[in-house]
Automatic annotation (TrEMBL):
Native species: Equus przewalskii (Przewalski's horse)
Keyword Disulfide bond applies: yes
Range of residues in the leader sequence: 1-16
Highest taxon of source: Eukaryota
Domain Ig-like stretches: 21-95, 189-269, 283-374, 382-469, 475-548
Protein name: Fc receptor-like protein 3 isoform X3
Amino acid sequence: MLLWLLLLILAPGREQSGLAPKAFLLLTPPWSTHFKGQKVTLKCRDSRYPAWGDVSWYYNKNLMREESGEIQIKKSGYYKCKTQVSSFSDPVHVEFLSDWLILQASHPVFEGDKVLLRCLGKEEGIPSEKIYYKDGKKLGSTYSTEAIILNSVSLENSKYHCTVSRKDFWSSWKETSKPLRIQVQELFPPPVLTASPSQPIEGSPVALKCETWLPPQKSDTQLQFCFFREDQALGSGWSSSSELQISAIWSEDSSSYWCQAKTVTHSVIKRSLKSQILVQRVPVSDVNLEIQPSGGQLIEGENLVLICSVAKGTGTITFSWHREGTIRILGRKTQRSLSAELRIPTVKESDAGRYYCAADNIHGPILSKLTMVTLRIPMSRPVLTIRAPKAQAVVGDVVELRCEAWRGSPPILYQFYHEDATLGRSSAPSGGGASFNLSLTAEHSGNYSCEADNGLGAQHSDRVTLNVTVPVSRPVLTLNPAGTQPVVGDVLELRCEAQRGSPPILYWFYHDNATLGKILAPFGGGTSFNLSLTAQPSGNYSCAADNGLGIQCSEVVMLNFTGGLSTTGTPGLLCNAALAFILCHIPSDTLLKNSRRLLDYSPNECQEPSLSKPFSTDTQEPTHSELPALMELQPVYSNVNPGDSDLVYSQVRSTQPTKEHLANSPRMHWEHEGSTVIYSEVKKTHPDDSAGQASSGGWAHEDATESYENVPCASMALDH
């Protein structure tokens, strides 16, 4: 009894689904058919085990006056009851028969249960065979009063009866029971499928519930549930849970849903009606394009990431990416999310521009705003060019150092280098190249380079070598040995050297009007010419140096054997001009005596070999070229006539044409009016002057024994 009460209290009823649970009837004895005159006790129960006075009884749908929880009956008919907290119980048909043979079925009987059938005679005598039938077909037989068992009955309308054979002394006959319909109660009603929410929004979770209930008498029956969309089972299939949680439902999931419930023994299985679930789709809105790196500024070669997102929108969304001005779609993705990204690897300069994206979930594409993507181009390796005014860079030239990188985002800062020293810098705000002007000195020969930097990494040019050609300086001619008395047959070394000048240097050696030879100094410096002295070594010696940038002549060095004295000339006369001025140093009487011998000399001009032509070390006398422009001549002092003991020195000052004047004369001959020699005075030696030097008595005319006027001797000598 306590177990029944517990089952009644704990049994799940229809209050879970909003319906009042059914009451149910219990029969004592538990048979639905009895012999007439017998009594049967009916008990009304519900899941809450109500008070006795709360029961309403009905007989053949008519309310009875009985109000207690159980009553005794002895009339055939349909009985049902109801409590204040329950709905009507299923009606129970109890029948009282006056027949000799009745067929009894146990009560209550639920779907899938075993049923006891008992064929009972009013007066049981000698055991006889009892035969059981279902719908006229024999089920079995027995010779005792024991019942037979029917397994797993269902809600069906079959008729059962039994027969027994009787006999007495006179005859035998067969007794047949009244047909019986077994009152099989529903174990659980067909389940009802519910969805929460009933109209879900796409992408939201949905809970499916398969609702049914068991009567309190069968609350210990275990049920299993399965959910279906159309004909496809959902989840893991059959489960003891009557609920199924769908984490996210989509518009394509809109369909018919239903469920099934069954006992674990598979004896009873029922399905729900189909329920249509329509999933609500939310259109996309507020489409946004995000650029990574942030700000949309990239360096060429980096990866560009385009993130397209929507603030709202459900279901499968198709994202697409575009660049303004192009028809081609950069990329497309379809997925169930509110954002998607497109990665463009290793962007190039052509990838710069304005980008946008579109999102569509069947309601039509929605576009984002345009977002600018800018690219900064790293510097390419710059190219350095050196532009000189002439083919050969010379000291004093202004050269342009031009540095230019073909690629690179502005602004660009250029720096210029000589070896490892910085010369200067120049900025190119709008890109392109930049220049730096450099005034050349001799120290500017070497390697030059430049650097370009726009903040993305500096790039260096290749080195460019610049050779600055230095014009030769005036060479110095020295005689070796010096200060000794040369003897015929000696070898005299003529050493000519220019202190400055880029190699190779071509040196020319002259004796009066004759070219002694020429020697090339390929690595610069000086060079020597060895002269074997003959009977007439006296005269004017000079040299010239040229490296293609203009010839330079040394001062004249005079060698005299006449008085047994070898001296060198003082600065002032160059190359071939020396002899002309020496003629002018001599007094008139001495000049007359020695003019024929001196005029026999035909002084040679300084040669002007050019480095633009191949140098030759051939010592043969070259073809005479035009005289170079001479510098202003300085005073020259020399022994003129050692035979005259009274005459010691003469002082000479010369004026001469400029280089421009010389250039206008192809032969470079000086006209009479173009050059004058001025004689100041002639000084005599004093007997008391042990040094033999000229008196320091000044320029007084009373001390002079001879006077001279301006004579154009230089012009005549050169014309000769």
